[in-house]
């Protein structure tokens, strides 16, 4: 019975030692205020990471490894920029998920902001509804 207690004690001490070495990341703690989280994150970022986070690239340039190599902060699908001809919703989801996976693989795990140039609705998705411009909607029943 004594050896079981010793083994349990050793295992417990090992777990505590591992947990004690885990770094507390304030910027990932939702209980912290936004200001504290931002200050902590910016304090950890290198100049290259800060420059990358202020950079937006076009979807066609967001190939595998580019987002993580240059710490890109934002990707835009401009007019006509699609993952494939007649791309389905699933194709768009897969494309963005792969981009996020690449961005999140960095040291700090910062996700990208993804944008779409879609003034008519997301008409790049096969069989999507196309809406009139907002200005057209605004004057539809106006005097």
TrEMBL record:
GO process annotations (BP): glucan catabolic process
GO terms of molecular function: beta-glucosidase activity
Signal peptide: 1-22
A Pfam entry, by short name: Glyco_hydro_3
InterPro entries found in the cross-reference section: Cellulose_Degrad_GH3, GH, Glyco_hydro_3_N, Glyco_hydro_3_N_sf
Domain of life assignment: Eukaryota
Protein name in UniProt: Glycoside hydrolase family 3 N-terminal domain-containing protein
Naturally occurring in which organism (per UniProt): Triticum turgidum subsp. durum (Durum wheat)
Organism phylogeny: Eukaryota, Viridiplantae, Streptophyta, Embryophyta, Tracheophyta
């Amino acid at each position: 019975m004594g050896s079981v207690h010793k083994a349990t004690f050793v295992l417990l001490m090992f777990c505590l030692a591992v947990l004690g070495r885990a770094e507390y990341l304030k910027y990932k703690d939702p209980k912290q205020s936004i200001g504290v989280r931002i200050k902590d994150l910016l304090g950890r970022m290198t100049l290259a990471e800060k420059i990358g986070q202020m950079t937006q690239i076009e979807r066609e340039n967001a190939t595998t490894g580019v987002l993580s190599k240059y710490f890109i902060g934002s990707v835009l699908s401009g007019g006509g920029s699609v993952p494939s001809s007649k791309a389905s919703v699933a194709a768009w989801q897969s494309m963005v998920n792969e981009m996020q996976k690449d961005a999140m693989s960095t040291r700090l795990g910062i996700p990208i902001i993804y944008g779409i140039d879609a003034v008519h609705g997301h008409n790049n998705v096969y069989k999507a509804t196309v809406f009139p411009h907002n200005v057209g909607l605004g004057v539809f029943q106006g005097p």
